[in-house]
Each structure stands twice: as C-alpha cells, then as structure tokens.
Amino acid sequence: MANRSGVNFDPYVTNINLTVSNRPSFSHVSFRDMMHRARKEAILEECTRLLSERGYDAMTLDQVAEAAGMAKAVLYKHFKGKEDLCCEVMVRGLERAQGFLDGLPARMVASQRLQAFVRWVLQAQLNSDAPLLAERKSEIRHALKASEPYQLALQGLSTRLEEWIVQAQEAGHIHPGWPLLVARQMLMTRAVDPMVDALMHTQAYSHDEVVEWCVKTCMATLHASPEYLPLSQKAKPAKKSMLAVG
Amino acid sequence: MANRSGVNFDPYVTNINLTVSNRPSFSHVSFRDMMHRARKEAILEECTRLLSERGYDAMTLDQVAEAAGMAKAVLYKHFKGKEDLCCEVMVRGLERAQGFLDGLPARMVASQRLQAFVRWVLQAQLNSDAPLLAERKSEIRHALKASEPYQLALQGLSTRLEEWIVQAQEAGHIHPGWPLLVARQMLMTRAVDPMVDALMHTQAYSHDEVVEWCVKTCMATLHASPEYLPLSQKAKPAKKSMLAVG
DNA sequence: GTCTATACAGAGATAGAC
DNA sequence: GTCTATCTCTGTATAGAC
Question: Å between B178 CA and C11 C1'?
C-alpha cells in the first residue's frame, strides 16, 4: 500500500506517543488536529490529480484512498461522499485560480492578464492539476450547480474576467464585436481547451509548444473581428486585410 | 455470439417456419433479414441519441434497450457489448460526416466547406445527433483507438479537411501562419466545441445564434494571424491593425 | 430471436472492532 | 480516527425457456 506523503498515520503508534509524553492536552489536540488537516490535504491533493487525469466518472474512491495511503473508510470521516469531496476539490481549484490572478504583476494590462490566465490553466491541466472543470457531461455538474461555495467562487472568477475583457476592449486589444458573454465563455472554455489533448496526442509538439498554440488560438480569436465570414456566398475578402494583422 | 454467415441455427423458429409456410426459403430469409436490420437500426439510432445526450460513461444499455423498445438481451444478439455497439455508432457518425462533405455543392470554395463542416457538426450536436466524439476522457477512447474501421474513417475525414485547409491557405482565406496539423485539430475540436453547451446554458442566445457564435470563433481564428501576442511584455499592437480586419 | 431471470463485477457507502 | 470487512446498488453480460 503506497503512502505517498511518507508520514506515519497509524493511530496506535500515535496513541503510544501521546501516553508516554506529558504534553498538555492543548498541544495534544493541536497535534491531532494538525494530523487531521494533513490527511485531508493529502486526500484533496490526490483527488485533484486523479480527477484531472481520469475525470469524475472514471475516478474511484478506491484509487483516491490508495494514492493517499489510507483506507477508503477514512475518506468518509472527512467528506460526505464522492460528490462532496470532488466539489471541495473544484472549489479549491477556483480559489487557486483566483490566487493566481491576484498575484499577477501590477504592470500587466488587461489583455496580458487574460492571456496569462489561459496559459496558466492550460499548463496546470497538462500537469494533472486542473483548477477548472473541463467535463461537460459528467455527473458532478449537478452537484456543482447546487453547491453555493462553488457558484460563488465561479461568479467571482467570471466577474474578474469580464472586467478585464471590458478593459481590453477599451484598449483595443480585444475586438469590440465580441459580446461580453461570448468573450467570457470563450476564455473559460479555451482555458480547458480539449485541443491540448488532441495536439499532445499527435506527438508533433512539446508540452510547452502545445500550450502556446492553444493560447494563440484563443488570443487570435479575441483580437480578430467576429464578422469575418468567408462563407457568405459571394464575398471573398481580400488577402491584404488578413496580412495587415500580422 | 455473432453469427457471421447470417444463417439461422435456432431449432425452434427454423422448424416452425419450415412446417407452416410454403414460401421459398429465399423470401423467408430476406424478410427476417429485413426485420433484423430494422431492429439493428433502431438500436443504433437510439444509442446515437443517448450517447450524444449523456456521454459514454453515463449512458447505460438499459436505457438503450428501453428507448429502442426491446429487451436488453437482444442488444447482445446484434453487438458484442457496449464498446462494440458504441464503436459502430461512432463509425457511422464519421461516415455521415463524410456523406455531408461529399454532398456539398461544387461551387463552394475550400474555406466555405470548412465552415459548413463546423456548422453542421455543431448543429447535429445540439440536435442530439453528434457524429463526432466530444469526450476526451471517456473509457470508449481505448476501444476506438483499437478499432480499425474507426481509425480508417477518421483518417479519411482528416485527409479531406487537410486538403481544404491547404486550398484555403493558398486562397488567402486561412492565415498561412497556422501549421496544417494545428489548423486541422482546431477544426475538429471546434466542431465539437464545449462552448455550445456553456453558451446555451446562459440562455442569452437561441439555438442558432449559439451555433453561429461558435462558427465565428473558429473561422475568425483561422483567418487571423497566430502571431498576435498582446502579452509579449512591451509590444502593444496598434488598434488600427485590428480594425482593418472588420 | 426475443423474452425473463440471473450471474458477476465494480464502486459507493457503512458497521463495528480497536 | 483508522482499520477490515461487509452491505447495497447499479450496470454489464449471460443462461435458458419458448
């Protein structure tokens, strides 16, 4: 049985240590509490990884328990069940994303922040540490819809992105032709772009190159005009309009 | 157990038919064969819908059997199992896509064909009739990877798209800065863009409007230059380059 | 070929000893 | 609080009557 953190959590050993020592009960409680939180962290960490790698439906609590080095029953002391556990993972993912946005250097302008956001989420996904939910048809979505903390965190992230979109549009870095709602959904969707998997699978590009191509597709879209329609049957836009962009 | 020769070995039915009917065995076999195919079609149709609505993992064979109006055991007379059934659904989806591409009017230029392809797949998805696999982490991907018919059909579709991409690039409708591989993956990924679900969910746009916005994001990207990078720390591209596109 | 009934496996969740 | 062992439910797949 793998214990990835390497810490000894055996309750009996812990008991012995507490008995032979004369530490005050305050310290005792604090110690146990610390261990408790540490185990919870280990669970959340491994669950984040498995969720990112396998997806909600394919991930099992047996896998989480084994990866975290504890019995499955322990999971239920910390969380009500699979849904509850994964909801908390997703909420923490959103909080990490918020933290990343908060830490962006002040000199960055809005469009740079948006690009940094997309790149960071894409990279995290390739590192099996996805902070955002990529699955559209997973059973967990029902639970997330009902989760107030999740909806609040998601709302915060959306608001932040929308502010920057407006700023970037005013600065002329995002084309004003994109509705705010469409631009926001595009950013959040491209941040978990399934194209990363497809491109990685071709083995034509490195990890970082794949991320950059995905970032480019996203930013190029927002910068371009949505009104380009090569298919309106007669219009054939001149080449020079395109070359003027580069 | 599949009966590859199509001959009926069942002792009961064969006996009855041979006794009470005087029709030549040829007609008899043809009629039964027709019914057999009809039921198989019904299974495939309902499975396509459920697969599109719920995804591979969430879809159950009980649902397929009930939707098709037959006992679950019948499914196993037509298909080896869930994987086999869904693989055939996906292959037929690819064939339908090929059929759509074959039917495009001759006057359409390459970029118009590409746009028509993306729009058609997106619409089919919203009609619960997805011809392409959107799920990236489903268990079915292993089976598809091993399925020769699927890989062949997918290869055919890819080749066709790549030809048109090259033509569109030569015509100046797709920016030459996009590598062929990236452009192809972008098209196939955008054709099943998860953004459709996200946008539909906001209830801000109608069915058709959502599809059009997704089509626009895809085509605008291919038309634009990938080398626009607002985030290269010092460069601040002029507004006029963007406005020149519209 | 189609049905009912059932075997079998996997995974979520719980019981009870320590 | 943690463990082992078990329950329960669901879903795939199969057996056997007709």
Answer: 45
Residue A111 contacts residue A163 (beta carbons within 8 Å): no
Domain of residue A28, CATH code: 1.10.10.60
What dihedral do alpha carbons A39, A45, A51, A52 form, nearest 10°?
A: -170
A171 CA to C1 C1', in Å?
Answer: 69
Structure pTM?
A: 0.84
CATH number of the domain within which B97 lies: 1.10.357.10
**Residue labelled with tokens 């719920």:** B54
User: Both tokens of residue B42?
Assistant: 């019904």
Q: Test A246 with B229 for CB contact under 8 angstroms.
A: no
Q: What is the 8-class DSSP label of residue B55?
A: -
Q: Which residues span the domain enclosing A12?
A: 1-78
Q: B65 near B42, Cβ under 8 Å?
A: no
Rg (chain A; Cα; Å): 23
d(CA B125, CA B215): 13
Q: Is residue B217 part of a domain?
A: yes
Q: Return the number of other C-beta atoms located less than 10 Å from residue B10's C-beta.
A: 9
Task: List, for residues B144-203, the tens digit of each pLDDT value.
Answer: 999 999 999 999 999 999 999 999 999 999 999 999 999 999 999 999 999 999 999 999
Phi, psi of A5 (to 5 degrees): -80, -15
Output the CA angle B191-B48-B121, nearest 5 degrees: 15
Structure tokens at A157: 């992230």
Taking the C1' atom of every nucleotide in all shown strands and the CA of B36, the nearest one is C1
Q: Whole-angstrom Cα distance, residue B146 to residue B150? A: 8
Q: Is residue A239 part of a domain?
A: no
Strand D and B190 CB separated by under 7 Å = no
**CA atoms of B122 and B215, how far apart (whole Å):** 8
Dihedral sign, Cα of residue B19, residue B20, residue B24, residue B30: negative
- Which residue ranges in chain A fall short of pLDDT 50? 1-25, 231-246
**What is the Cα–Cα distance from A149 to B77, expressed in whole angstroms?**
48
- Residues A125, A57 share a domain: no
